[in-house]
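Human:
If only I could read backbone structure tokens as easily as an amino acid sequence. I am handing you a single protein, as its sequence and its fold in token form. I hope you can help me see how the letters and the tokens relate. Thank you; the sequence and its tokens follow:
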Amino acid sequence: MESPAPPPLTVAQSRAVDRVCLEDYGLPGAVLMENAARGCAELLDRVSDGNPGAVAIVCGKGNNGGDGFALARHLTIRGATVHLFAPFEEPPDADEEPGEAAMNARVARRMGLPWTDWTTLSEEDLTNRLAEEAAGGWIVDALLGTGPSGPPREPMDVAVRAIHAARSRGPRVLAVDVPTGFDADGGRPFQSSPDGGACCVRADRTATFVAPKPGFAMDGASDWTGSVSVVGIGAPPAAIESVR
């Protein structure tokens, strides 16, 4: 049984928690990312009765993607069958990109995990591959998280539509932190066309970090987030309270 959810934090406050952890407590971003990924693996394991089945993880280039790369490692350690859909054929080397996301991508690549550069696939091919690699299991949305302030742009919009189409064939979807394309403060997808159409991942579960976001409690939000679970990242309680 999960503990009661803490009070919500806005997207800006959630980012401030990361900054306070780094600047005031000296807690490295790599530690926060590691804790986030481990928590997502534990959640996926728990909601799947210890057998998440095949897991296709669709990553972006930023920290949300880094969570996905680290999650792939933790799920593999737990015995899951994982296929990574990465936004590049080879991760940048440490001199070119020393950040936590690139580090976790390099580790996943060196582990020899099944790997596809999704940016080279058409929307139809990506849909088919996701449905195939996640058959009977899960697709993980680790594309953008809370970073954007508007709808997904090319090529992310292609990945969002492919995830949506593949979900209709059976796999469930876990969103990492926030479904891509969802306004976590406003409680609805970002408008992506003049007619109000939405380019947004529709998740069965969302593993959000530190605290729920205000928009998750709004009418209709659960149609996009599914069930929301809060995953801790190891932030000291005082760091969280300092930005509330």
The mean pLDDT is 94.
